[in-house]
Amino acid sequence: MIELTIGFILDMIIGDPNNPVHPVRGIGYVARKFETIFRSILNKYLKFAGLMTWICVVTLTFIITFEMVSISKRLNIYFGIILEGILIYFCISSKGLVVEGYKVIKFLSKDDLDGARKQLSFIVGRDTASLSEEGIIKAVVETIAENMADGVIAPIFYAGIFGAPLAFAYKAVNTLDSMFGYKNDKYIDFGYFSAKLDDVFNYIPARITGILIIISAAILKYDYKNSFRIYKRDRYNHTSPNSAHPEAAMAGALGVELGGANYYFGKLVEKPTIGDKLKGIHINDVNKTAKVLYLSSIIWVLITLVIRGVIIK
Q1: Helix or strand or coil: residue 163?
Q2: Measuring CA to CA, which of 31, 234, 278, 296 is 20 to 30 A from 62?
Q3: Residue 262: phi, psi to the nearest 5?
Q4: Which residues pair with 268 in a beta bridge?
Q5: Residue 300 and residue 216: Cα distance in Å, rounded?
Q6: Residue 308's pLDDT band (cuts 50, 70, 90)
Q7: pLDDT over 70 for what percent of the chain?
């Protein structure tokens, strides 16, 4: 419980460190090595090659983290607790999500649409070159809301179950999906299991996130009734079985419409809309989204600590 508290507080204060020695970058490096190995060995069975890569990367990540924590706690319990807290910190990105969103909004506040589009391109997959101001703001809100589940709530969920080892294993799952979970010629087969297993690991956290957003909306005096209504109605309006859960709850709380068609790599992709356009989306909606994220994170950490305390007793 102490380790999770340390990790969460560090994230809230420092945010996500963008440096070349970030452990998640290490996971990505190892994943590329295993991809090369299994593609060469199993080049006619790419789905199986992708599954073997997934098993090796996730298992290795868990074992290394587990051994680091175990050895450090045997050497000195206080050192071990601090180290595990730092490792959990690397898995959570609540402040990082908000900071990246605000970087985009900073350009908009200066009426620099081109700057905002370029900055947005670093955090979303859609084409940003021709997005309007409303389209940019909508993309920021969607990104923060969707990534609440896999960037904040899910790592806390898995850290609460088995500390840093399971939290890091989850980050490996999430990283593999980000790297290989594409429906293009290169990864449609190799990334099949990475995408599907990421959906499995995010199934419960995504639904918890939607509920937390509704609760946070009520506390912050946003439209929690509409948040609940839209969540029930639109939580499956996405190609992913999980992504629309937090987006629907957030759209309802803000009274805006999210989702819809967007261009990806020059191709128009039709998607269902999420929420009702009760008002136009505004820069202030990013601030509201950030407040919901922070409050939801705090509530979930407290719930996790209480549950862990009850189980330990």
Answers
A1: helix
A2: 296
A3: -150, 160
A4: 263
A5: 11
A6: confident
A7: 98
pLDDT at 20 over 70: no
Burial track 95-111 (b if 16+ CB lie within 10 A, e otherwise): bbbbebbbbbbebbeee
Predicted structure pTM score: 0.94
Residue type, 197: L
- Residue the block writes with tokens 């904040």: 152
Say what the pLDDT of residue 310 is.
Answer: 77
Distance (Å, rounded) from C-alpha 182 to C-alpha 40?
20
Query: Residue 300's closest CA among 128, 112, 146, 160?
Result: 160
Q: How far apart are the C-alpha atoms of 170 and 62, rounded to whole Å? A: 9
Q: In this structure, what token pair is assigned to residue 46?
A: 């790419």
Tell me the pLDDT tens digit for each residue of 59-93.
Answer: 999 999 999 999 999 999 999 999 999 999 999 99
Nearest to 154 by CA among 51, 246, 232: 246
Query: What value does the CA radius of gyration of the chain take, rounded to a whole number of Å?
Result: 20
Please tell me the distance from the alpha carbon of residue 142 to that of residue 235, in angstroms, as a whole number. Answer: 13
Model confidence at 211: pLDDT above 80: yes
Structure tokens given for 155: 């790592």
Please count the CA atoms within 13 angstroms of the CA of 20 that sit on its side-chain side: 0
